[in-house]
Amino acid sequence: MVLAVAEVGTPVGRVLGTEDASPLTFWAAVNSEDGSYLQLDDVVVTQRELADHGRVTIAGVVTAVRARHEGASFDSDVFAIADGMLPARVQEAAEVTVTRVEPEVYVPPLPGAVAYRAEGEARDSALSFDRMQRRLPMGTGRDGQPVFLNADFLDGSRGAHVSISGISGVATKTSFATFLLYSVFKSGVFGGDAINTKALIFNVKGEDLLFLDHPNTRLDERTRAAYHRLGLEAGPFPQVSVYAPARAGDRTGSPDVASRLTGVDPFYWTLSEFCSDRLLPYVFADADDERQQYTMVVHSVTAQLARNAVDKDGGISIDGTPIHSYEQLVDYLVEQLNDDATRGGWAGSAVGLGTINAFARRLINSKRDLARLIRGDLPAKQQHRISTADGAQVTVVDLHNLPDRAQRFVVGVTLKTEFERKEKAGSAKPLLFVVLDELNKYAPRDGSSPIKDVLLDIAERGRSLGVVLIGAQQTASEVERRIVANSAIRVVGRLDPAEASRPEYGFLPPAQRQRALLAKPGTMFVAQPEIPVPLAIEFPFPAWATRPGEAGPAPRATLASMISATDPLTVVKGKDDGIPF
Q1: Positive/negative CA dihedral, 210, 435, 428, 151
Q2: Cβ(528)–Cβ(537) below 8 Å
Q3: Which run of H or E residues covers position 370?
Q4: Do 5 and 105 form a contact (C-beta atoms < 8 A)?
Q5: How many CA atoms lie within 13 A of 44 on its CB side?
Q6: Where are the alpha helices (DSSP H) in 10-96?
Q7: Where are the beta strands (DSSP E) in 246-356?
Q8: What percent of the chain is modeled with pLDDT above 90?
Q9: What's the pLDDT tens digit per position in 271-314?
Q10: Inter-axis angle of helices 353-365 and 326-338, to 10 degrees?
Q11: What is the spatial distance between Cα 134 and Cα 148, in angstroms, rounded to a whole number?
């Protein structure tokens, strides 16, 4: 990084002598008379000559800017100065937080040393981009130049996981998460591994994420140019599979979606799978539930179902009693628990009646929410399980039509299944990125639940197994600390004032905390391990449809998959249409 003066950049001022300069921070007076200026996020470089080390280059990012009248004593002097009646000079100054010193001789810059706005190689060196072996584009800085993320801290090589915080509907958390995935797939940084890398996205708000494989009709040449500056081609995600819950009461198992009519598969679990896979704990997925005594009953009943339920083509039979729906299963379990003769076998002999009744009440309340997901009336052979193993590069699971309990069940069971699959594979490749919004709902700071346990497992062991969590939430202060602490990349968009004051955002300098209160959509502050100051970036408008009204024509692959996946015999099943076979 030791550069000649001509290679550093454009001179904009000098190191201030009226403020203390240290090896980690200094102030620069701006020569505004010749039109120079410094703004927040500008990269500044200055140099100092040492007898035994030669030239030391000190670089940093502007984290505060001020302007004042020199020569004024009172607030009212501003009027006299403006009228030319009192001599004074306007002076601007910028605080620079040091990001890199090369060579590593930590001495303060000397007052009067020329300060330069870093450009080209000097800018990349100041932001440690030259140290990154794999530079993943994630947006542009205030200077319009690309800003990079070190992919080693994303894919598990040296760190993993991303935490994105901001106000719902304003911070564009999901848009940034999908752009980051697009960069992973399309930038070439991951080489041949990008082809096999998968993403699992849970859609919780409207049907906005169901059209990632459709081009955005609002895409213009200016946006295309923004993608080109980052080394990307603007376009939709090439391979997307969409899962939606089966419609309630529909014996054909059609997916419950309104706007997307092609390329959507239904998901549900048969009663047999529910029992054999021991999924009952995910019915009780509220964070406070695990602290209640009735969880002992949950685990006892779960074991009994796995032991005694016999598969009957999607339905089950328990001790000779046929069960064809989730409602019937709940009623059967409640009946067994209320019967003195069978209660001990299902709940255990040491459990009190009050605890059993608490379990039964919550189980009965789950019938309305989960009956459409746990089915005995749909064929078990039909494709209905959410999986990223053999599917498209991006798998979107639509949850927006489901009530809260059902959303928790789907998220918990799906993450459990995918994590167990990666554990059995025993290899970090191919990578699996999991995008989960409303993380504070699934992994709250207090209490425990089966979903929270899975997410903690991903946060703490997912790096070695190739599972990367991209969690988004309005309030990072309400998310389990260990999940946030294990996130190598932290991203902040527009914040609520009360939330911005929480210690979880201590990595933001004071000026950036204030700016986060008024950040516009598309502006994010990204902190990564190699750079001591979070970088303010703007990422391009999505090139893929983010809502039904923006969706262009469906890709051919989607239409082809829909046709090939249709069994012509099922179209006429049960109908006498005169066809002689």
Answers
A1: positive
A2: no
A3: helix 367-370
A4: no
A5: 36
A6: 77-82
A7: 264-267, 269-270, 309-312, 315-318, 321-323
A8: 69
A9: 999 999 999 999 987 745 444 677 888 999 999 999 999 998 77
A10: 170
A11: 9
